[in-house]
Amino acid sequence: FGYPAIPASTQTLCRYAAFLSKSLKFNSIKQYLNIVRHPLCPVQALFNAAQHVITSDINGPAFVYRHNGQIRPLTSEQFIDRVKECLRLAGIDTSDIASHSFRRGGATFCFKIGLSPDAIKLLGDWRSHCYQNYISNDVTTRYTIIQ
């Protein structure tokens, strides 16, 4: 319908609920709205992850795991290795996947949802506009920009 999906405004969610009410019951609509809220919100995901990790150092690393009873920081290399393992198990080629892929994907995502250049720079920890080199645009996005 042409509404931005992310971040979903209250008005967009209300319209979505009204659309669902044409074919679903109240309890089903609640479930659909819960699905929209949880997997698409990285802030909520971070809060959820923090509730499952016990650490005594409030100023310590944000991402940790337990190994032999000790809490250890999750390195970017370990994270990428795990992502690649999951992708390989799903039958996806991982030869082009690196930690830099997430910076590129993040910049592209932020651009596509309409964040300002300053917000993209802040979220990606860029000091210049070099993030613009990483934005991937599909044909539809390019056509929309040209119009």
Automatic annotation (TrEMBL):
Superkingdom per UniProt: Eukaryota
Q: Which UniProt keywords apply?
A: DNA recombination
**Which InterPro entries does the UniProt entry name for this protein?**
DNA_brk_join_enz, Integrase-like_cat_sf, Phage_Integrase-like_Recomb
> Can you tell me where the transmembrane regions are?
none
Protein name as annotated: Tyr recombinase domain-containing protein
